[in-house]
Each structure stands twice: as C-alpha cells, then as structure tokens.
Please model this.
Amino acid sequence: MAGYRAATDTGFRRGRRVSAPLCPRLRDPRYPWRRVFAGAGMRHSNDTAFARLRHQAAARRFIMAGRNLGRALKHNPYWPLQPRVPAGEPVGGQWMDSGPLAGAISLVLPVLRVVGTWAVRRLGEIARRTSPLLRRVPKRWDDGPTIAEDHEFDPETRRIAPPSQRRPGHPLIRFRSERELREYLGPAGPDREWHHIVEKRLADNGQFPPELIHSTDNIINLPVRLHRGISARMSRIERRLGNQVVRKEVEKLSFKDQYNFGLKLINEVARDLGYDLSRI
Model:
C-alpha cells in the first residue's frame, strides 16, 4: 500500500502512519480491549487483558451450567433410568415422561420412515383433505366397538381406515403420537386450536392407547376462546361431585362415556359463549 490508514472522527487519512485511532475512549488505558490500527491490519494492544475477559466469560458459563445441572438433578435424581423416545422418531433419543406408554407414543403403529415414501405421501394427502372437515362436531359415541378393527386399516401405514360412525364424511385416521398428528394435520389456523374430546393426558398416563386418543374421531378444530372455556370448565371444583375437580371425576368413566361427556361440554360452553357450532 502507498501508506497507512487509520479510522478518525472525520474519515480516513492517507500517506502517514497513525499510531492509534483518534477516539479518546479507545486510547484510554482503562479499556483493555482498545485496539491499534496499523497499516491494513489490526492488532490487540493488550492480549493478556483480552484473554482474561474471555476466561472470565467461560468461567461464568461453566458455573451457570453447573447450577442448571444441580437443579435438574434435584428435580429428577433418577434421570439415567428415564426412558427415551424410540429411534426413528423426529425426536428420537430425547428424554420422555415415564409411564406404561411413556410419552404417549403408540407401540403398535410402525414408524412412518420405514413404510415407504409413497405410503407417507398418501397419508399426507388424505390428512390434508381431512383437516378442514374436523371443524364439524362429530356424532355421539354409540354402543359398539371403540375403534375400527386393526385389519380395517391400510396395511402400509396402518393409520387409514374407512369412515366411522362418529365422522362418516371422511376416512378415519389414527396417529402414533400428538407430534405426528400435528405434523400431518397441520396448524389449526389463526385463533384456533386442536382440541381432544377425551383428554390427551389420558394417553400420557397409559389409561387409553395413543392411537385412540390421537385420531380424527377424537379431534376437533375449535376457536381459541371456546377451547380455553372448555379447559376452564374441566378444571372447576364442583360441589355436586364432592368438591372434586371435574376432570378427575370424568377420567373414571369409560372412553365412550368420556367422549359423550366431552361433546356435551362443547355444546354447553359454545352456547354460553354465543358460538354457533354449525358455523365454527
């Protein structure tokens, strides 16, 4: 280069060497990260102080990691025994809650990654066509089988069956987990949420199979306000139930009775909030 450059308050100067930037703060020795610009390069004037700052930052990160680990061990001292999501799942290897059906992942349905691309594509197409129809309130659960027999589902994905009595307008689809359900049905839409008629936590604790809870028979697309109103009603303490929480008493019922109670609750809350279920 013909000369040296240095950053100044007014711009660049050419043709002479400047030992330090014309900035009082950067020339102040109290700032160990000040730099001296020389030629076309740049060097630290105090490498020791700069390294000390780096080491202090690393030490703080290490201390914070230790504190977080201590809190985690205090909360769950038996974490080495905690089960993990099976390999092949999108979150395979991650920790999950314990229980008879840990993490509410169906053990009877195959992982979609191993069934073939064309089968997965077919499932996605049917799920996308079905998703808008799930805004309709399904029919009551009458006496009969709780779900289609296993041989009625397609042999490739084992997730698609003929229409059920609850929703006769489209195929019945069951999913291996809630994550898979949301992945294939997609988002519920603006100001809307997916609602489980029979609560999804009953799959987490093993009371019902995940493929029964996470099926299009048990899912309905509701406005957020209506969904939260239903959840609040389920959390109430009722005197007529012996001062018990509603959901704690409802979970003692059979799946059919819980399903019909859930439909009744949707209608009651919708009426109280002024919703027309035929237009939601």
Notes: Residues 49-81 form one domain. The beta strands are 35-38, 41-44, 160-161, 172-173, 192-196, 219-223, 237-238, 244-245. DSSP finds nine helices and eight strands in the chain.
